[in-house]
Known about the structure:
The chain is an alpha+beta fold. The chain contains ten helices and five strands; from the N terminus they run H-H-H-H-H-H-H-H-E-H-E-E-H-E-E. Strands 1-2-3-5-4 form a five-stranded mixed beta sheet, covered by helices on one side. The chain is elongated, with a radius of gyration of 38 Å.
Amino acid sequence: MSGHFTTRKGLADVALAGVVGALAVTTAAFGQDTTAVDQALVVLSSAVLAFHRVAPRTVAVVAALCGAGYVLHAHPGPLSALPVFVAVATTASAGHRGWAAAASGVFLGAWLATGPTTHDVVERTALLAGWFLCAVVAGQADRNWQAYLRQTERRALEAERTREEAALRRAGEERLRIARELHDSLTHSISIVKLQAGVAVHLAKKRGEEIPPALLAIQDASGEAMRELRATLEILRSDDEPTGTPALLVERARAAGLTAELTVTGAERPLTATVDRAVYRIVQEALTNAARHAGPAKVSVRLDYGGDELAIRVEDDGAADPARPPAPGVGLTGMRERVTALGGTLDAGPRPEGGFAVRARLPLGEAG
């Protein structure tokens, strides 16, 4: 984007030099005393304007000297000052007011020396001096305006960043409030249900009675509900930042009894915070789903660093059947939202040869 913008500015500078040169050369062509040397001076004083962003002081010096030489030799009209006028304005806009004033003085001195100090010459010189003064003032005003725009843009960006931080802080506070409400309202009740079911099962076993299947189902369901609730509360209390790396996730999965391996290919490099967080959450969710639903399966995690994207593949050889794809749950939906928000793609579903696969591609930006 910046390269395209620079190219556009360069073309605009060339166009400026071309327009000014066309006007100056056309005006000089009607002069009776204009020679080939004068035409060359006019062309040179106009052509250097294409470089006013790169070397504004040099442009001012060359334009003033060429303009002075042309004026002293050919005695042209006031329009001969056009290339020098533009050079003075652009030099002042670049912040070099002293150079702009000096270039104006050189050209005006040459103009004043073109003939006897008559009333007409003095009047024209004063008129040109006024125009050059306007050029310096206009250039400085443009510089101040550009500085004001940059400052306004910085303030807008700072305000946006502050709003984002405030929104994140409010979201964190809301998560903590929800976690407290869930803990206070559900944890105690589910614990009581689990405890009562456990006591009933224990007493039935102690008396040698047959345990009702409904009671066992209540005990199992309450235990699973407690585990899910604890996991939910842990997520709500977290700040959604990764607490490790994909390699650490694989190690944790192995420690939990899952057969998992990690493979990294390509030139591994630092990632932006958003991409790093998304990679962590994708691998975490995929490993969690494999541990819950794949059964005694092998899981492979593969990270492939390309030139401008990162490919993530988490595959298992578990019990997933292509003929009966599972309904997307909250985890897969959240995973897809993360990837889509970053401009990537996600494909998750049973493999034709059996098992489940999660494949994601994330565009890589420069790490801040």
